[in-house]
Amino acid sequence: MELSKNIKLNELRNSFSTENLISKTKGDKVIWALVVLLTLVSLLAVYSATGSLAYKNYKGNTEIFLLKQIIFIGAGILVIYFAHLVNYTFYSRVAKIAFLISLPLLFYTLFFGVKMNEGSRWIRLPLINMTMQTSDLAKLSLFMYLARLLSKKQDVIRDFKKGFLPVIAPVLLTCLLIAPANLSTALLLGASCLMLLFIGRVRTRHIMLVIMIAAIPILFLVTAAMIRHGKTSGKEVAATETVVKKSGGLFGRVDTWIGRMESFIYGSKETDNDAYQVNQAKIAIAKGGVFGAGPGNSTTRDYLPQAYNDFIYAIIIEEYGLMGGAFIMFIYLVFLYRCIRIFKRCPFAFGAFLALGLSFTLAIQAVANMAVTVNLFPVTGVTLPLVSMGGTSFIFTCLAIGIILSVARNVEQIEGKSTEAFEK
User: Fold this and answer.
1) Helix locations, 200-310, DSSP H
2) Which tens digit of pLDDT belongs to each residue from 165-185?
């Protein structure tokens, strides 16, 4: 009996040994390396950006946020590892269920969620007492479901009723439920989905129709910002403010959206928090120069709100210079390139669309975050994937990467079998 127990214990130890875990780690090795690089950058940047905040709030314990980030990174790596071991066809089977679960969660969040910064984006998870952005779950579910629909409707995809309407309906529904509390996320999600639909052979005129409809509220925000800034008469300004207040009852952040657009077009005001953030980010970039002030030497972190989250890219540039900022951008471009290679190599439509869709949303999110930092885009609430301080958003990002690596792992297996058959 004791001998058999010892044998079982040894087998259990061997199954969780480092060598065994490495041997089971498959998929695109370059993507694995990029994940490791970004998490290392995250540790350095988060520790630097939160040092003063931790010292102030936790009585001199400057490592508290670093320890939390290490825990999130460890959990995220485990999520990537176990997600990539699952055959990606499993995600096709659960796609519809996950999408149908995400819709009522978005609806619940919109009316009963935790309100922060005038928006209701979060729900509080029981037991662990953490908040979760339901839009993160909705994005992941939507891309799985959209990849499934595109793969099944390739024969009729160019038909408006049979092909286009069934695939665009879930996109519009999800974006409409996200938009009232988080317009920027809804727009970025919609843009990612339209790119995937274009590659999925949807007619260009159908996609342009959606873009034209989506441009209407954007034009309204731009017009309202111009009117508010005083480009027209006082009566029109008063009328616009009345419309905004009435709209605010239904869409609580309309006034915030107009203010952000006004700040982006005309510059800052002394009382404008968003413009203050952008100005502090510009100061950080100016201080960084070409090669940066060095790790941990940021001074703007003490003045820049969300320095560890939405504006962490500014801290990276301040400490590592434009060279460091360019290197981060290069990492995301390489990540997108490797995912496009997976798309080209995958012989099955669902896996190809799934990998490409998830890579699009992560790359576009990264570009949007960096564009906000350098004032090329109005202020949004999106984080820098795998770099900003951890939370449920970090875990969902890791899950998306794990799914991409699952597709890559299965592509490698198929190519390996083909090579063996050819050699025989």
Assistant:
1) 204-228, 234-250, 254-266, 273-288
2) 999 999 999 999 998 888 888
**Cα separation, 317 vs 9, whole angstroms:** 49
CA-to-CA distance for 408 and 420, rounded, in angstroms?
18
Q: Phi first, then psi: what are they for 133, rounded to 5°? A: -80, 115
Burial of residue 374, with CB atoms counted within 10 A of its CB: 0-12 exposed, 13-18 middle, 19 or more buried: middle
Read off φ and ψ for residue 98, nearest 5 degrees: -60, -40
Q: Which one-letter DSSP state was computed for residue 348?
A: S
How far is Cα 135 from Cα 120, in angstroms, rounded to an integer?
A: 11
Say if 421 falls within a structural domain: no
CA distance 327 to 321: 10
Q: Distance (Å, rounded) from C-alpha 365 to C-alpha 357?
A: 12
**Structure letter (DSSP) for residue 389:** P
Average pLDDT, the chain: 84
Beta bridge partner(s), residue 125: 130
Residue 103 falls inside a structural domain: yes
Query: Distance between CA atoms of 300 and 292, rounded to whole angstroms?
Result: 13
Backbone angles phi, psi at 122, to 5 degrees: -120, 155
**Domain of 301?**
43-202+267-414
Is residue 214 domain-resident?
A: no
Q: What's at 194, amino acid-wise?
A: L
Instruction: Give the residue-averaged pLDDT of 404-421.
Output: 78
Asked, for residue 260, whether it belongs to a domain, the answer is no
- Dihedral (Cα; 169, 172, 176, 179), 10-degree rounding: 160
Average pLDDT over residues 62-66: 85
* The two structure tokens encoding residue 207: 């996609």
Model confidence at 247, in pLDDT bands (50, 70, 90)? very low
What is d(CA 57, CA 377) in angstroms, rounded to the nearest whole number? 32
Q: Of 63, 61, 54, which Cα lies nearest the Cα of 307?
A: 54
Count how many domains the chain has: 1
The whole-angstrom separation of Cα 64 and Cα 47 is: 9
Q: What is the pLDDT of residues 272-296, one digit of tens each?
A: 666 788 888 999 999 999 999 999 8
